[in-house]
Structures are given as structure tokens and as C-alpha cells.
Amino acid sequence: MALWLRNLGVIASLALFAATAAHANPFSLTFTATDFVPVFPSTPAPNDPVSGALTYDAASMNSPVDSLTAISLTIGAHTYSLAEVGFLDSGFGIAEIGGLIDGVNGSGGNENDFLIIWDTASLAPLLFQYATLESDGVYNASSFSQFHVAAVPEPNTLVLAALGFLALLAVRRRFAAIP
């Protein structure tokens, strides 16, 4: 009986340690921006719609972005890498992620650059803007056929769930062995 209680204490301690560790949580953002309009010149947008996915860390779903961890975005012939992308916290509940060529919140023609902006309180998209090397224009969209922010399950959470399941199996097995 004492061994069983000791093991339960170890499991509880590990669960408490993992649950109280201070860290940012991973979130995924998937989107499809549509109905682009030219900012300049008045040529039609060469890529419409534009879809992508970003993974970032933040304290909560409604908090500012702390870091970027993954990107899946191709516009025209250009596929973006993490090294080309940054984020900006405006301090007003607005999140901005974009290319670094003209700074996170700017893009000009004849370059591969983009910007996505959303309201962190309501998780509502506000704007997607892009420019490409293939076109001399800058194109904006405030229409999104898809915009979704979701928590990414962490490995610690999965480990804790597995440990809990194993503990339940051990208790069940122990009680089944008692006549």
C-alpha cells in the first residue's frame, strides 16, 4: 500500500510541476483572404484568394504574439520562411504578422511582402495585404472566407493525459486483484 501511495505522490508532483510551468502556449492561425482590391496601380490582383497557416506562441489566445514558430504561405512563386516574417504588437489589441522587407506593417510593389492583421479580443480578421515580384501593385483584402485561431495541443498535455490514464489502469488493476 505504501508503494502505491508513493507512486501516486510522484505522479501528482509531476502533474503539478507541468501544470504550473510558466510558458507561452502555441496557437495556429489558418486563413483564406478573398476579394483583393489594388491599392496601386489599378491592375487586378494576380493571386486571389490567398490561403495560409501560421503557428505562434502567446500567453493566451487573446494575448499579443510572443514568437512565431511556423509558417505555411505561398503567394505567387514565393514561399515564405520564418526568417522572412516578423510580428508587431500595436498595444491596442491588434496583432500584426508580416514580411520583413518593409517592416512588419508595410509593403510596397515589386517585392515579396505581406501583412495580416486581426483583433486579438474578438479574433476577427481585419486586413490581409500582399505584394509580389511578379506585379508592381499592392493588394488589400478585408474579406476572409476562412479565419480560425486554435490552441495547439502541447506534448506536456498529452503526457499528463497518458500518465493519468496509466494511473487509472493501475488503480483498477490493483482493486481487481483484491479478493
Give a written overview of the molecule:
- With 179 residues, the chain is α+β, with helices and mostly antiparallel strands.
- The chain has one domain.
- It has two helices and eleven strands; from the N terminus they run H-E-E-E-E-E-E-E-E-E-E-E-H.
- The strands form two sheets. Strands 2-10-9-8-7-6 form a six-stranded antiparallel sheet, with no helix packed on it. A five-stranded antiparallel sheet has the order 5-4-3-1-11, with no helix packed on it.
- A hairpin with a 2-residue loop joins strand 4 and strand 5.
- Helix 1 packs antiparallel against helix 2.
- It is elongated.
- It starts with a helix and ends with a helix.
- About 3% of the residues have low confidence.
SS elements, strand count: 11
- Order of strands, widest sheet: 2-10-9-8-7-6
Helical percentage: 10-25%
C-alpha Rg (nearest Å): 23 Å
Order of helices and strands: HEEEEEEEEEEEH
Number of domains: 1
Distance between the termini: 15 Å
Give average pLDDT, whole number.
84
- In percent, how much strand structure appears in the residues? 35-45%
Report the uncertain regions. 16-21
State the shape: elongated
Helix count from the secondary structure assignment: 2
How is the biggest beta sheet arranged? 6 strands, antiparallel
Structural class: alpha+beta
Summarize this structure as a short list of keywords or feature phrases.
6-stranded antiparallel beta sheet; 5-stranded antiparallel beta sheet; 23% helix
